């Protein structure tokens, strides 16, 4: 269902007989389960908002962010995006972009994966301390992640992360300090969403130091949506991929906004980012996920095993809910089997 259906659901429950205390108790339970969208629907039923605590307000804030993720990423890519190209070699995905003044870049990727790649892909995205071990680096133009550091882990799927990024001379290093969290909407809508956004010293939930001297802090937003892939999705129209027989497909929609805080961006660098870097990073990401699935990335495998009970079993259950099929992982997958 679309966002309008969620709004209709709220409207139909205006006469909810529960007390505000009962509604808040249900919302709090949803927050514990990382069901941010469901929690937001509950919070909107509360009549006396003076009852909201700091935890409730944080839940509302996250819920609104996630609601926007679903609304924007479920909208077709034809609305305001320029198609950069599509890939149909080893993987099927389509890349889109927008460029605004001052080098502000938007990109969008619609990528089809088999369900058994979902957990490994989430592991590569989630294990932020390992980004610098696989993220591509270019010598010309000079570009890449110099350092990735998890500042804080809060609960199962919430992180505060610091990335240091190298840019071509004479530009200073850039820093991205981002807050990331995810929503499990697989039971209600068979979808999962995630939000990453930059934060600064005004961030309410953790102390953020000022950027080091000579380092510029960038604006950054990244949204993810995971849902069952329709068989008529455009990324499959020219597919050469032989997907595993009987295995469901998941559509990954990714939207990135980046403002490097540059007054003027050389045209060659803009073209490099839109035509080469974005697609290369995505192919690398999917390739690393395949390696994780096949047990070729020991650091990732060790982290997955250490977090299996608290996180990755739960992630696998989300894939099953999205696709409606159990046992999404390959029987030969030693890295992800307990």
UniProtKB/TrEMBL annotation:
Region ranges (Disordered): 1-20
Residue intervals passing through the bilayer: none
Annotated protein name in UniProt: START domain-containing protein
């Amino acid at each position: 269902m679309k966002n309008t259906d969620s709004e209709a659901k709220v409207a139909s429950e205006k006469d909810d007989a529960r007390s505000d205390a009962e509604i808040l108790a249900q919302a709090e339970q949803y927050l514990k389960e990382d069901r941010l969208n469901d929690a937001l629907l509950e919070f909107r039923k509360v009549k006396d908002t003076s009852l909201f605590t700091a935890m409730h307000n944080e839940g509302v804030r996250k819920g609104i962010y996630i609601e926007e993720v679903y609304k924007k990423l479920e909208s077709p890519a034809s609305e305001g995006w320029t198609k950069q190209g599509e890939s149909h070699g080893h993987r099927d995905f389509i890349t889109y972009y927008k460029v605004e003044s001052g080098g502000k870049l938007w990109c969008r990727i619609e990528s089809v994966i088999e369900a058994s790649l979902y957990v490994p892909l989430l592991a590569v995205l989630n294990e932020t301390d390992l980004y610098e071990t696989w993220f591509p680096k270019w010598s010309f133009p000079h570009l890449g992640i110099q350092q990735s550091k998890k500042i804080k882990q809060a609960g199962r799927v919430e992180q505060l992360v610091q990335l240091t990024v190298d840019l071509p001379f004479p530009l200073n290093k850039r820093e991205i300090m981002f807050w990331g969290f995810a929503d499990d909407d697989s039971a209600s809508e068979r979808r999962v969403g995630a939000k990453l956004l930059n934060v600064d010293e005004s961030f309410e939930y953790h102390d953020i130091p000022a950027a080091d001297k000579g380092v510029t802090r960038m604006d950054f937003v990244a949204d993810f949506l995971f849902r069952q892939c329709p068989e008529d999705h455009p990324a499959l129209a020219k597919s050469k991929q032989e997907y595993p027989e009987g295995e469901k497909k998941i559509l990954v929609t990714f939207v990135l906004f980046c403002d490097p805080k540059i007054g003027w961006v050389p045209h060659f660098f803009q073209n490099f980012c839109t035509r080469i870097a974005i697609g290369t990073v995505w192919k690398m990401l999917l390739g690393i996920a395949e390696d994780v699935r096949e047990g070729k990335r020991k650091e990732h495998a060790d982290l997955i095993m250490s977090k299996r009970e608290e996180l990755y079993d739960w992630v696998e259950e989300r894939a099953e809910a999205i696709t409606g099929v159990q046992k999404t992982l390959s029987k030969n997958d030693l890295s992800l089997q307990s």
